[in-house]
């Protein structure tokens, strides 16, 4: 293909081609392992001028041209032609059209060609074209931005990639330029980075290290997410060594800086949700351990006292929230950077009323949301929307710089850097004040890509660095902001998160330190609202997971289900159980109410539920007269009277009058048994007593007979015999009876010892009178 034919093809297809035109093909199934980052099934053709497209008089023009094959088919070899416009581009609007591939620029002339070999699937080739400094195409060029295009012909037509060549003017006064570089950790759902995450991010090849390396030695303005240094500081002595070194480097930088919202939270979403001001962290105490913050033990002062006192124990002093969130020296307070394209005049005015330490707030807005910027004109950095101060960053330049900072290959990075330089060329020529640009909020950028982007911005012709203080002190110009529609999805998410946080704050009154729950909740919700989540398909899931976690926390303390019970006594203690899944002890009050008067119940029972366990609670009750069912309603509340968990009910069957009747019947039965026992005992004792009396009487009679038979008791014996005249028996002294004669006369002779007394039955008895015989013998 000849150069003339190629140029003709370029001119015929410019209105339809883009700077990196892709030919779409069906995606293969299954997808092969890929080494390119281009969309699957496409080819990407890129023109990237060397030196960001700047060609000063006497210098050569060099360009890198790449072709990436993301299809499954081989691309046939082709010839690429480079063409340069003879006249400069008129203005910024025309530049935008040209770079977008929609502009028609006459006067293109071929200045060089190169040949591509066949390109295998999922691979790429890079070629370069150089136009010598003494080439007639470069000679005598006036300052300006010239159109540059590379093209080749394939089966479907002409494929082009557009760029520019910038011939700078040496007569234009330098313009101040500020470049804002964010120092962030990307999208997060946890409140703070963990020690492991910090160790990875601050390693020599970590993303945070790359950000710090890229700004070191540059005058960039740092926009620091305070959650990053806070994550390091809360770890104290246990922080990774690499993280501590990173923090030391950050504090040592002399760059001007400001603090983003914690987690770089979306400011506009919060204000659209009805908040009076953007949220701030409340407490980070839950992330700290006192053991990581020891206070050095003071050295004891020698004294003449021989006995030294005890050495004071080491104590700990936790840093304050303000100390944890500090982003370094030279921080300008009261700077807000809403997500691009979200802050309208209402948001800016609301932020302007939030003075900090007597410093007037200032808000960063993109030029695309201003009336002048929307018309393609340059907007100086310092502006005012009514009484509200703003810093306007150039949208076109910032977008190109962000693309360059995310380019992984040098032969791709030159294309967006050339676009940024071209826009800056128009901006420096048109502006009436200093300019401001950003490199976007991209994450995971390498130190080479990000560093080259920052350097390219400050190396653009006609610019000199300006810091944040100088930009804010510049004379403001009137700025009119366009009306922007709200982002209902993110505003609704912010509103829901605020409602959840309010519920958790009430729930947290069960703790001695409510901040142990409320602090992490605030940090996590701000992270979920981070600007880095905008456009990320994973954000809805992250939001849902956080809300589910909050709901789980709200359900972590509750009464365990209860079952019906019976009450047979007049008083007892009903037992219930409180579940506490939190890692902290909680203070509760169990409120118990009844539905009738059969039962008296203790209405308030204090409870201290131990961490991660079930705690038993006993509620004293007392039955009244009557029986029946009583329904008790149980409700846990915090000491601040906040309901904790759902109310539970328990049925109690009261049998108090049956107990009284049972006790009475039992008392009667026991009393009757006692009376019967007593009666039987009395009767038994009486019988025994009568038996003893009879025995006593018999003993008395025997004694009387004994006395009569004694030597000195003859009279008595006679009396006994006389007494026996009626026929009764008289007991002898030895207990034997003396019988009476029929006529009542007895003749009794007793032995000297009174023994052997025999009765006489009468004269006709035929029985000798033993006593008489004995007497005769004597």
Give a verbal description of the structure.
By secondary structure, the chain is of the alpha/beta class. It folds into 4 domains: 165 residues, Immunoglobulin-like; 279 residues, TIM Barrel, CATH 3.20.20; 98 residues, Sandwich (Immunoglobulin-like), CATH 2.60.40; 90 residues, no CATH class. It contains 20 helices and 28 strands. Strand 11, helix 9 and strand 12 form a beta-alpha-beta unit. Helix 15 runs antiparallel to helix 16 and helix 16 runs antiparallel to helix 17. The longest helix is centred in the last third of the chain and has 53 residues. The chain is elongated. The N terminus and C terminus are likely disordered. InterPro entries: DUF6049 (IPR046112). It comes from Microbacterium arthrosphaerae. Pfam families: DUF6049.
Topology:
Blueprint: H1 3-13, E1 43-49, E2 61-69, E3 78-85, H2 92-99, E4 108-116, E5 123-131, E6 144-154, E7 157-167, E8 175-183, H3 195-201, H4 207-215, E9 221-224, H5 227-233, H6 241-252, E10 257-259, H7 267-272, H8 321-325, E11 335-336, H9 345-352, E12 362-366, H10 371-374, E13 382-385, E14 388-393, H11 395-405, H12 410-430, E15 435-438, H13 447-458, E16 463-465, H14 468-472, E17 477-478, H15 488-507, H16 515-528, H17 539-554, E18 557-559, E19 565-567, E20 571-580, E21 586-594, E22 599-601, E23 604-609, E24 613-623, E25 628-637, E26 643-654, H18 656-708, H19 714-723, E27 730-731, E28 737-738, H20 770-777
Parallel strand pairs: 8-9, 8-15, 8-16, 9-10, 11-12, 12-14, 13-17, 19-26
Antiparallel strand pairs: 1-2, 2-5, 3-4, 3-6, 6-7, 13-14, 18-20, 20-24, 21-23, 21-25, 22-24, 25-26, 27-28
Keywords: Membrane, Signal, Transmembrane, Transmembrane helix
Protein name: DUF6049 family protein
Biased composition (Low complexity): 694-735
């Amino acid at each position: 293909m000849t150069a003339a034919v190629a140029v003709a093809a370029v001119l015929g297809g410019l209105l339809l081609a883009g700077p990196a035109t892709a030919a779409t093909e069906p995606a293969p199934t299954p997808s092969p392992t890929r080494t390119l980052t281009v969309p699957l099934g496409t080819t990407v053709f890129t023109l990237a001028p060397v030196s960001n497209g700047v060609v000063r008089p006497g210098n050569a023009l060099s360009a890198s041209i790449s072709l990436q094959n993301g299809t499954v088919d081989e691309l046939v070899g082709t010839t690429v032609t480079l063409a340069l416009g003879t006249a400069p581009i008129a203005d910024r609007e025309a530049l935008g059209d040209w770079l977008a591939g929609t502009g028609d620029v006459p006067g293109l002339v071929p200045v060089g060609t190169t040949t591509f070999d066949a390109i295998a699937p999922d691979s790429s080739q890079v070629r370069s074209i150089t136009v010598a400094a003494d080439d007639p195409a470069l000679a005598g060029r006036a300052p300006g931005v010239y159109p540059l295009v590379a093209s080749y012909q394939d089966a479907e037509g002409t494929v082009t990639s557009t760029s520019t060549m910038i011939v700078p003017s040496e007569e234009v006064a330098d313009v101040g330029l500020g470049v804002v570089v964010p120092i962030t950790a990307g999208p997060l759902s946890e409140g703070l980075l963990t020690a492991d995450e910090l160790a990875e991010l601050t390693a020599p090849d970590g993303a945070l290290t790359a950000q710090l390396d890229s700004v070191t030695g540059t005058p960039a303005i740092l926009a620091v997410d305070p959650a990053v240094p806070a994550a390091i500081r809360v770890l104290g002595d246990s922080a990774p060594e690499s993280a501590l070194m990173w923090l030391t480097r950050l504090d040592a930088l002399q760059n001007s800086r400001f603090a983003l919202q914690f987690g770089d939270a979306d400011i506009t979403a919060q204000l659209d949700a009805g908040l009076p001001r953007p949220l701030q962290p409340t407490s980070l105490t839950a992330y700290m351990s006192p053991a990581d913050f020891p206070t050095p033990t003071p050295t004891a002062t020698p004294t003449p006292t021989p006995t030294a006192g005890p050495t004071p124990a080491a104590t700990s002093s936790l840093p304050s929230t303000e100390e944890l969130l500090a982003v370094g020296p030279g921080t300008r307070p009261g700077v807000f950077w809403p997500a691009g394209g979200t802050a309208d005049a209402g948001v800016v005015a609301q932020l302007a009323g939030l003075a900090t330490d007597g410093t007037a707030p200032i808000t960063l807005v993109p030029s695309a949301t201003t009336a002048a910027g929307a018309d393609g004109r340059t907007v100086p950095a310092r502006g005012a929307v009514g009484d509200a101060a703003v810093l306007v960053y150039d949208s076109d330049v910032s977008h190109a710089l962000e693309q360059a900072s995310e380019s992984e290959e040098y032969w791709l990075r030159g294309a967006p850097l050339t676009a940024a330089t071209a826009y800056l060329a128009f901006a420096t020529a048109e502006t009436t004040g200093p300019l401001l640009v950003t490199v976007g909020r991209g994450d995971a950028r390498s130190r080479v890509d990000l560093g080259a982007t920052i350097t390219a911005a400050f190396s653009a012709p006609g610019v000199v660095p300006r810091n944040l203080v100088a930009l804010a002190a510049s004379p403001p110009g009137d700025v009119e902001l366009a009306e922007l529609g709200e982002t209902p999805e993110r505003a609704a998410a912010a509103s829901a998160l605020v409602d959840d946080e309010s519920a958790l704050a009430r729930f947290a009154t069960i703790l001695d330190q409510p901040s142990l729950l409320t602090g992490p909740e605030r940090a996590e919700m701000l992270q979920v609202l981070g600007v880095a989540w905008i456009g990320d398909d994973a954000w809805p899931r992250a939001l849902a997971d956080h809300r589910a976690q909050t709901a789980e926390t709200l359900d972590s303390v509750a009464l365990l289900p209860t079952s019906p019970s019976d009450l047979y006594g007049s008083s007892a203690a009903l037992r219930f159980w409180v579940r506490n899944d939190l890692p902290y002890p909680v203070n509760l009050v169990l409120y118990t109410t009844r539905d009738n008067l059969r039962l008296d119940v203790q209405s308030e029972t204090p409870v201290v539920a131990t961490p991660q366990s079930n705690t038993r609670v006993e509620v004293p009750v007392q039955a009244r007269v009557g029986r029946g069912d009583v329904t008790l309603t149980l409700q846990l509340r915090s000491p601040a009277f906040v309901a904790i968990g759902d109310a539970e009910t328990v049925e109690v069957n009261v049998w108090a009058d049956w107990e009284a009747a049972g006790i009475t019947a039992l008392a009667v039965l026991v009393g009757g048994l006692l009376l019967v026992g007593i009666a039987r005992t009395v009767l038994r004792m009486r019988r025994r007593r009568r038996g003893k009396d009879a025995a006593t009487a018999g003993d008395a009679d025997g004694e009387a007979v004994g006395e009569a038979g004694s030597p000195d008791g003859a009279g008595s014996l006679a009396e006994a015999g006389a007494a026996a005249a009626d026929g009764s028996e008289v007991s002898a002294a030895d207990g034997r009876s003396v019988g009476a004669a029929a006529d009542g006369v007895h003749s009794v002779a007793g032995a000297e010892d009174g023994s052997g007394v025999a009765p006489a039955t009468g004269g006709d008895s035929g029985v000798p009178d033993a006593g008489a015989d004995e007497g005769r013998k004597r």
